[in-house]
Design goal:
Blueprint lengths: L6 H10 L12 E4 L5 E11 L2 E11 L9 E9 L25 E7 L2 E7 L2 E4 L7 E8 L6 H10 L4 E7 L7 E7 L4 H7 L4
Antiparallel strand pairs: 1-2, 2-3, 3-4, 4-8, 5-6, 5-9, 7-8, 9-10
Length: about 200
C-alpha cells in the first residue's frame, strides 16, 4: 500500500528547506533526526538518460507513536531534471497522481550475479531540498514486516552488491529513468535504520 502525501505536507516541506544542490558524499551514511526519524543514504554522480546528474538513494524510517503510524520509505532523487527531455515528471507529481496506482518503480537487487526484481507503486514531487530536483518515493507502514520496501532492505542486508532504481515513464513505457547504486558498506547504516523494529 502506498501512503499518500498531502498538499499540506508538501507545503510544509517547501517551507522548511530552501533548494540546494545535492552535496558530495562518499559511501553510505546514517542520520538521526527528531521524533525517531532515521535516514540511510548514498549519493553519486550518474548519467541519466544521457545527461550528467546527481542521484540519491535514501531509506527513511519512523516508528509508531501515539496517534501516528510509523513509515518506512525508499526515496530516489535526481537532479537536475531540466535536461531530461521526454520524461513525464507530471505523471508522478503530487497527491492523486496517476502513477500512484501503477507499479512503475522497478528495483533490481543483485547478489552474486543473480538479479531480483521488485515492482513498487510510487509517488513523487519536485524537491524542496534540491534545486531542479525530483523525488520518487515508495513507502509502507514500518510495522509491516513483509511490505515491499522492507523486502528490498532484507535482500540488501543479505549481501547484495548493487541496487538499480528504474522509473518507467507512465505515458511512454520505452522511456526509463534509472541509476545503479553500490551496496558495499551499506550494512551498518541500514542496520541502524532498522534497529528496534
Amino acid at each position: 500500500m502506498l501512503l499518500r502525501f498531502t498538499r499540506q505536507g508538501f507545503a510544509l516541506l517547501m517551507a522548511l528547506a530552501p533548494p540546494t544542490f545535492l552535496p558530495a558524499q562518499s559511501g553510505w551514511g546514517i542520520q538521526a533526526g527528531p521524533s525517531g526519524l532515521r535516514k540511510a543514504s548514498i549519493q553519486q554522480e550518474a548519467t541519466v538518460m544521457g545527461a550528467k546528474c546527481t542521484t540519491r538513494l535514501q531509506f527513511t524510517c519512523t516508528q509508531d507513536s501515539p496517534g501516528a503510524a510509523g513509515v518506512l520509505a525508499l526515496e530516489f532523487t535526481v537532479a537536475p531534471i531540466t535536461p531530461l527531455k521526454g520524461f513525464d515528471f507530471g505523471f508522478f507529481e503530487g497527491p492523486g497522481a496517476p502513477a500512484g496506482a501503477k507499479g512503475l518503480m522497478r528495483l533490481t537487487v543483485t547478489r552474486a550475479g543473480k538479479p531480483s526484481v521488485h515492482s513498487l507503486r510510487l509517488g513523487g514531487w519536485l524537491s524542496a531540498e534540491v534545486e531542479d530536483g525530483f523525488v520518487f518515493a515508495s513507502n509502507q507502514r514500518t510495522r509491516q514486516k513483509t511490505g515491499p520496501v522492507r523486502q528490498v532492505l532484507n535482500q540488501v542486508l543479505e549481501g547484495a552488491e548493487t541496487l538499480e532504481v528504474a522509473i518507467v515513464d507512465g505515458r511512454n513505457p520505452s522511456t526509463v529513468l534509472k541509476a545503479r547504486f553500490p551496496l558495499a558498506g551499506s550494512g551498518p547504516a541500514l542496520r541502524s535504520l532498522l534497529k528496534g523494529l
